[in-house]
Design a protein that fits this description.
single chain, 118 residues, alpha+beta, 5-stranded mixed beta sheet, 28% helix
Length: 118
């Protein structure tokens, strides 16, 4: 866990949204990743909050999946309802959320939430 910038109180909705992003990303890392490592970074900037969760796993270049993990029929990786719900939560505050497999392996969830929106 890393925190950068000067931590400060956040509006309740943004605070809860940041918590849910971290919770969902770590849950997905446990369910779908190889479980080896996860990194959480929270960055307090002047006008926005950035939350990023990286986890290790097989490389997208090799097409590998963790042992014993098969895709759910009819659903592509990263299209679960949890991430969709997080995108909607972040959008309420004028922010954006990006979730994707990393080329070198693993998955990244990154959100940027403005703090100066009325």
């Amino acid at each position: 866990m890393r925190i950068s910038g000067e931590p400060r109180p956040l509006p309740t909705g943004i605070d809860v949204t940041a918590y849910r992003i971290i919770q969902e990303a770590l849950t997905n890392a446990l369910k779908h990743g190889d479980g080896a490592k996860a990194e959480v970074t929270v960055r307090y900037a002047d006008h926005y909050l950035r939350v990023e969760v990286l986890n290790s796993g097989p490389s997208v270049l090799s097409g590998g999946r963790p042992a014993g993990r098969e895709p759910v029929p009819g659903r592509a990786d990263g299209t679960g309802r949890g991430l969709l719900g997080l995108r909607e939560r972040v959008a309420v505050y004028g922010g954006d959320l990006d979730a994707r497999r990393r080329l070198g392996g693993g998955y990244r969830v990154r959100a940027r939430i403005p703090l100066d929106r009325p």
